């Protein structure tokens, strides 16, 4: 494909996607970034990316517009561009959390819209993204959206838009859940007498190893857990504490809260968003 991609917003997620595309051999002349911050512009110029402080200039230059701004400013970014977007009809690929395709269409007057939910491991090209295509999107646009998102890891389509809210609660917010557990494990290891350096190194390697085993195995994670939980052993003692604290229920409640917040954002209730 020889289309051009422009990123409105040059922050972390835009940088991750650009890095993934460059790693897959994309020429820099097919990549644009628009951002009001000169330091952000200069950072992308170091990669020979086409840059501008004008969103309008970017829209004129590209075939796909990636909306990579904070969700609370999405409306003020898109509304001034509505006439131009309606005329040019680029594909709009939004990675702004919680913004529904109906709102994206309303604010932009665009017809070709994909709503995506990537996550922060995209920064190291290990992302997990899901995306929903607005009704009637053509195969070429679908392929373009998939290609851009898969440059930084797994990219999966979902059949219904409300599933994006579930994805937000799972993989979108999920890295923070694992960081939270790793944080707690490191703190507990310090109290058990390990050095900070050892606690960190062992925690991170354990998390990485467990994920790799799960990814490479056909066995359900429940069975993998059972295989390392010998009756009466140390792991069983720890799991028993988790079960008594109803950790599964706590995780379910936490993800339900994230799901409801994503729905609220999609209905236009921006509030004070935190990813």
Characterise the protein shown here.
The chain is an alpha/beta fold. It has two domains: 5-159, Rossmann fold; 174-264, ProC C-terminal domain-like (ProC C-terminal domain-like fold). Helix content is 53%, strand content 13%. The protein is built from 13 helices and eight strands. It has helices spanning 12-23, 38-45, 55-61, 74-78, 82-88, 101-108, 139-150, 162-172, 174-191, 196-216, 221-227, 234-244, 247-266; strands at residues 5-8, 31-34, 50-52, 64-67, 91-94, 113-117, 127-133, 153-157. An eight-stranded mixed sheet has the order 3-2-1-4-5-6-7-8, sandwiched between helices. Helix 7 links the parallel strand 7 (127-133) and strand 8 (153-157). Helix 8 crosses helix 13 and helix 9 crosses helix 10. The two termini are 32 Å apart. Mean pLDDT is 93; it is low at 271-275.
